[in-house]
């Protein structure tokens, strides 16, 4: 029976917004456990609070509400039973490989001989034997990440935390390191009882994990979990492997879809202002191009993974595009495939004027933020409002930089659809039939 190593109960995390404008909720009512002898993957898109949750479990930041226990005891301060591998390599450039690997052991107060023994063992484990005296500037990206992994393994943590560990590497290097970690875990020689992997890469999650917890966004919450139930090592050609990947693609591109019957709880975000419902960060030109390419690929469903490969898109960019076309009613997503709707086919083959009309209707009907901006402008006698008004509203629901990105996306969509205009000099949003801006 797997022992619970770390338990998170009803954790919510908020951060204060600038200038006392309230709080930003990064996580809402999250509950999960990390168990021994398993690889657990936290799968979610940007804004789902994956890294925030990881840092709470590591004891680096406290939850706002809720509790975290480690080994059955309340966690207060840094968690001594975990070590972390970061997305960035986090190496000290003036230290050699072995000195970087020994950092955690020095902090733990180990004697020099024991430090060297454990560091050399970890270096050998990750395939860096012979590079002990090298400096970070002499290493490739993959080798630097191996140093980071060795540094974490040297302290022999009960749980190894890996925060997007392969995202800074090129595709081939990432695949190689991913495979080596999997081989090491499957061999039974891994020095940790459990691995907690944070990722947005669906295939990576299914390849490495025994259990996948899917996180939703705005605020971060648990949508559900899936047991991979695959014999190790996980085989990409296994039918269940392919079905899991397809299902997770469908789940990730349909935020309202239930993940699994054994939902892990965590509570969906409460309904709020239309300004709190984020727009996918995609320009209209990208939407048009994506739909035209789907149209060229033929009738019927198109496998999402194949589309990503063909278009050389990252999963983040692909998910944003699919989010946009699905929310606008231009495509349906099911079974790991995307299919153009009749309206999507019309949009992709329409003239510019026709496409603007189609886009305007769909944006007003299906995008609450766009409709709210248009309604607000109609309420003003001069049909014009300062951009700051909308940014102040968005700032209540998003960090400032994200609020600016949301506003920029809304402006791009609204201008294309000729629903409203934006004067960057006057910093005003206005309806096309508004009086002259300078007199507003």
Beta-strand percent range = 15-25%
- Which spans of ≥5 residues are poorly predicted at pLDDT below 50? 261-272
CATH topology of the largest domain: Rossmann fold
DSSP summary: helix tally: 16
In terms of structural class, how would the helical and strand content be classed? Answer: alpha/beta
Taking all Cα atoms into account, the compactness measure Rg is: 24 Å
The number of domains: 2
Broad CATH class of the largest domain: Alpha Beta
Short note summarizing the structure:
The protein has 440 residues and is α/β, with parallel strands linked by helices. Helices cover 40% and strands 20% of the residues. The protein contains 16 helices and 16 strands.
Your description of this structure?
The protein is of the alpha/beta class and 440 residues long. The protein folds into 2 domains: 4-252, 3-Layer(aba) Sandwich (Rossmann fold); 276-430, Arc Repressor Mutant, subunit A (Orthogonal Bundle). Helix content is 40%, strand content 20%. The protein has 16 helices and 16 strands. The chain has helices at residues 50-57, 97-101, 103-107, 112-125, 141-154, 171-186, 202-208, 239-252, 284-296, 304-311, 315-327, 342-349, 352-366, 368-379, 387-394, 400-416; strands at 4-16, 23-35, 38-43, 65-70, 73-74, 82-85, 159-163, 194-199, 211-216, 221-227, 302-303, 331-334, 337-340, 384-386, 421-423, 428-430. It has a 6-stranded mixed β-sheet with strand order 6-7-8-3-9-10, with helices on both faces. Strands 2-1-4-5 form a 4-stranded antiparallel β-sheet, with helices on one face. The protein has a 3-stranded antiparallel β-sheet with strand order 11-13-12. Strand 12 and strand 13 (337-340) form a beta hairpin. Helix 9 (284-296) crosses helix 12. The longest helix is centred in the C-terminal third of the chain and has 17 residues, at 400-416. The protein is globular. The N and C termini lie far apart (70 Å).
């Amino acid at each position: 029976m797997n022992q619970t190593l770390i338990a998170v109960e009803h954790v919510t995390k908020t951060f204060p917004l600038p200038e006392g404008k309230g709080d930003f909720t990064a996580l809402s009512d999250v509950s999960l456990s990390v168990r021994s002898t398993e690889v657990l993957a936290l799968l979610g898109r940007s804004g789902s609070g994956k890294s925030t949750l990881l840092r709470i479990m590591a004891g680096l930041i406290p939850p706002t509400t809720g509790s975290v226990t480690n080994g059955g005891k309340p966690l207060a301060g840094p968690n001594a039973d975990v070590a972390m591998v970061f997305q960035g390599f986090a190496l000290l450039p003036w230290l050699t490989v072995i000195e970087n690997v020994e950092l955690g052991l020095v902090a733990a107060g180990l004697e020099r001989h024991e430090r060297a023994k454990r560091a050399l063992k970890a270096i050998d484990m990750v395939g860096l034997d012979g590079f002990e005296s090298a400096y970070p500037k002499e290493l490739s990206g993959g080798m630097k990440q191996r140093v980071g992994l060795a540094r974490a393994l040297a302290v022999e943590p009960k749980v190894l935390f890996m925060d997007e560990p392969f995202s800074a590497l090129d595709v081939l290097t990432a695949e190689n390191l991913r495979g080596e970690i999997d081989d090491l875990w499957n061999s039974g020689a891994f020095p940790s009882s459990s691995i907690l992997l944070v990722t947005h890469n669906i295939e990576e999650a299914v390849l490495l994990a025994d259990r996948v917890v899917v996180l939703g966004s705005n605020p971060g919450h648990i949508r559900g979990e899936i047991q991979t139930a695959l014999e190790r090592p996980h085989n990409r050609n296994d039918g269940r492997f392919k079905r899991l990947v397809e299902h997770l693609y469908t789940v990730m591109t349909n935020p309202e879809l239930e993940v699994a019957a054994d939902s892990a709880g965590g509570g969906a975000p409460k309904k709020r202002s239309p300004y709190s419902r984020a727009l996918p960060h995609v320009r209209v030109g990208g939407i048009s191009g994506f739909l035209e390419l789907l149209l060229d690929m033929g009738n019927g469903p198109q496998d999402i993974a194949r589309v990503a490969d063909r278009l050389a898109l990252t999963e983040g960019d692909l998910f944003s595009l699919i989010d946009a076309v699905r929310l606008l009613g231009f495509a349906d997503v099911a079974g790991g495939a995307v299919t153009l709707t009749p309206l999507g086919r019309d949009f992709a083959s329409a003239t510019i004027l026709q496409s603007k009309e189609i886009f305007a209707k769909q944006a007003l009907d299906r995008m609450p933020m766009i409709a709210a901006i248009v309604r607000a402008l109609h309420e003003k006698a001069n049909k014009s409002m300062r951009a700051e008004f909308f940014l102040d509203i968005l700032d209540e629901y998003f960090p400032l930089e994200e609020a600016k990105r949301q506003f920029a996306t809304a402006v791009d969509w609204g201008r294309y659809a000729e629903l409203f205009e934006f004067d960057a000099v006057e910093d005003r949003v206005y309806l096309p039939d508004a009086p002259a801006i300078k007199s507003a």
